[in-house]
Records
---
Amino acid sequence: MKQIFNPFGKKKFRDVKEGDLEILKSVAEGWNIEYKKEKPNSKEIAKKISSFANSYGGIYFVGIDEDGETNCAKDIVGVSDSPDDIRNAVQGNVQPFPLLETYPITLENGKKVLMTVVESGENPPYIHSSGKIYRRQESASDLIVAENNRFAIDELYKKAKNYGCEIGKFRNSELNFCVGEDDIPYLEIYVNTTPFNHFIINDFFKEETIKEFLEQFNGEIKIEEKKEDGSILASFNANMKFDSAQTYSESIAIRTLENQDLAYNGLTVEIDISGNLKLLIPLNRKIVFSEKHWGKYLNILKKSQEESISNITFLDTRHIIGSILGLINNYIEFLEKKGYNEKLEFKLKLRNCWRSSLYIDSEKFIEYVKDFGVPICMKSEQEFPKYSIIIELSEIKEHPIIQTAHLFSHVANSLGVCSNTAFLSIMDEIQNNPQTQD
């Protein structure tokens, strides 16, 4: 696994406590570390952060006094400033905004050390508001001057271009579809570890790993989400069945072949050696409608030409939610077993969704349809959202149903139902109609 330099060994940055900071008294400033006793002005903070992003990444400490002779940490003094001060300083002075996370470490004296972890940027150069570009050179942030260091700037742009090509290639299913699949709507979900391709699954192509991956996605999964008082907010049961695993050059894919047309893609889960995931989910037709709200919905539908209703594909919203919920939660469990528990980045795509419509069994949804009409998608393919959704793996574990509902809301928005209405409606349906999803 390629990771940022971590002076705390195997301890995660989020778990660092005051006692752990003592190790820094033997760690000198340099390529990956910088100490500041007090919070500098915003432009100076931005200069240091951008230099890390343009180089190899690093950790920027505020509240630690440096030993002038050894360049190591000397005194752990702390500051009263907020972690937001670091982010705000960078946001106003660096473009594009680099990947960073600031962790406040509380001290016994009531103050805190601000530890900002900066990733090696995948979209350089990160340009300071002064118009200058900085990069690390041992313990300094050296200015890259265009007139005499054109090669260094070209390398930064090349790195960004290569990253864009790599992640663009990943977000392509590379699957071929038969003519018979042209009428089957599909949801494609692309999930990557971050930074992209900085994680490696050991022994990836061994039979034991392939078997473990196949078994992880089989069987019943029961997911509950609790409120702060410990009561159940919502629950969901899902059954998964995969009976086939195959390898590609850098990935493993699992499918269900029993009672399926072997020439069709069907539900497909593909993971690569860097832990990145591709999901292909056929969107089932909704055949059975509950009596609770369907009558009201049908009355709205009949305001159009009744004979045209048969031309619309009503999608099984609950099946979409259940598929995302079960597959993503099995995925994060597999990643955790392999040693990854950081952030995940999501992009989605709809295929063959022309003349498709969502139906959500919720009063909130019916009221939306009364106000805005029946949502019918008239586009065949859509990729969304414009900017990737980034979620901490721990957030998905803590709030699996809410996070899945948020992902679904982006799907619903692309199918004609605004995100907020879709989120509230599907949460209402799940809470009021708990049942198993096959």
---
Amino acid sequence: MTISMLTGGYGSPAAIAKQAQAFETMAISQLLQPMFDSVDTPDALFGGSPAEKTWQPFLLNAIATQMEADGGLGLAGQITATLKERPTQ
């Protein structure tokens, strides 16, 4: 993920905040991934099909998006504040 460079700076405050939230969502998703990797899949009668692994990233992203919306890890606020302090080039 890159921070877009608009008009020589990092973009509008709203764009910075949106990009910081997207980054935090991605970070939370990556932190949750090992938890899902360690869960045994059930037998074929009650799940465990190949589709389960196919849709797992979507589930992780949905969980991460909700966690970020509920306050997340606090990364988005820190990233936003840091990028707003940086001088434009």
